[in-house]
Design a protein that fits this description.
By secondary structure, the chain is an alpha+beta fold. It is about 35% helix and about 35% strand. It has six helices and nine strands; from the N terminus they run ββαββααααβββαββ. The mean pLDDT is about 85.
């Protein structure tokens, strides 16, 4: 013995005589120190993760799939939702955990491509990213959804990109106008007098 303390799981079972009196005890003491410390480390890691996600301003959730009798994924159930995600959904956080998307935000199931995207992440066990219009769920704006497999379910981040999309659209429109003007300039410009005499050619 090195004088250190270790966690043990102790069990005891009485031996009784014909009258039901305890005559002796049988017991075991199993060293569970490694398992117990691993469980503590896991619990601490989960607490740190939740603290970080709770403080994040980016909507984040963990979901598990809901399958029909044939095994097809028909919905997802929230197992964790951070405050930012609850605010985005305009729901109380406690009411979301354990609930299905179809129960709390049925319109979300109608967002084109969302369910197919989530199913693909779970079934192929691969990370993915998509951009979706959230208006069918009653949420104004476009969102970039990043998702990654997590066990049999997935975790997802939702970043609003409405302003970014508008800026890109404006930049594309400006580029198209510039290209149109450039084409006109390359075609040449002619200036004529009132008598239609050519005064200047570029």
């Amino acid at each position: 013995a090195d004088g250190s303390y270790r966690w043990h799981l102790s069990r005891a079972l009485p031996m009784r005589d014909a009258a039901g009196e305890i005559t002796r005890w049988y017991g075991t003491a199993t060293d569970i120190d490694h398992r117990h410390r691993a469980e503590l480390a896991l619990r601490e890691a989960e607490e740190r993760f939740r603290a970080a996600m709770d403080a994040s301003s980016i909507p984040f959730s963990i979901m598990t799939p809901v399958r029909d009798a044939a095994g097809t994924i028909v919905d997802f159930r929230w197992s964790y939702v951070n405050e930012a995600n609850a605010a985005l959904l305009e729901q109380d956080r406690a009411s979301l955990v354990g609930a299905r998307i179809g129960e709390r935000r049925p319109g979300a199931l109608a967002i084109p491509g969302l369910m197919a995207f989530f199913r693909r992440v779970v079934e192929r066990q691969e990370r993915g990213q998509t951009v979706l219009d959230a208006s069918p769920a009653g949420i104004t704006g476009w969102f970039q959804v990043d998702a990654a497999p997590l066990g049999d379910g997935l975790c997802a981040w939702h970043t609003e990109v409405t302003g970014y999309r508008a800026a890109i659209a404006e930049a594309n429109a400006a580029r198209e106008q510039l290209e149109a003007v450039t084409r006109l300039m390359l075609a040449g410009v002619t200036r004529c007098t009132a008598d239609l005499d050519i005064a200047w050619v570029s």
